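User: For my dataset I need records formatted as: sequence, then structure tokens, nothing else. Please produce one.
Assistant:
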Amino acid sequence: MDWIRQRARGCLSNLEMHPKFTLKRMCKQIVGTDRPTEKAITASLDWASGGLYLYELTGKQKVDEMLRIFDYARARYGCDVFVMDSLMRLGVAGDDYNGQEAVVFKIVDWAMAMNVHVHLVAHAKKGERERGAPGLEDIKGAVEIGANAFDIISVWRDRKVEEAVTLLANSDPDAAVKLKVEKPGVIVNVAEQRNGDFVGKVGLWFDQATYRYRSSIDGEAWKRTDRAPWRGVAGRRQRRRPVKSGIGQPAAMGSPTTESSPMERCFPA
């Protein structure tokens, strides 16, 4: 959602979740409540449609076909941020390390050629999840997955804290609230940042009702509120016709267009 606020255009391929459930969660994030009204849902989706495009496929997809869809989203809609969820849904076996390396190289090469950002979701090894926020060596699969990534960011839920809060809620509610406030339940680990300066961990608090995260400095601003990012923001952006460019170069954006396309799997939210 923050990408959209920054005027980026994102193309999301969540092969593990149907788009309607993805949009349901996004509506909660945008509006800031577990039960948004019909009017709020319509307004939030209209706001998001200016910068969000979903690939309507759940299951498996070959990386070459995925990149072909991304090519289309880049050329027609000007998308500059792409998400693939996840690596193991791209037609490569969990023990096929050579295949995983080839997939990662294709994604990296395509992202550099198109001058865009691609976020690839790669799960952590099961045994490492209980030890803390995963790092570079904890990525499930070939070592080349992390070695060829420009940035590596892991998100880890501290389930021990969650369990402690749940247990205290029955016996000592005040202590449960204090623990929940003082101890972050989520750790974000920036394990690598090739072109940046910060590498380290940040504690966050997760609100299950709104699917929002907040940091300690966010304070009162991140409490549930009816204020939403789409309020006061212009609605749907105008689509623009791509201008032909050289091979391997990002398409420039030209005059507006409303023409349709057979590639309806990549559609505005």
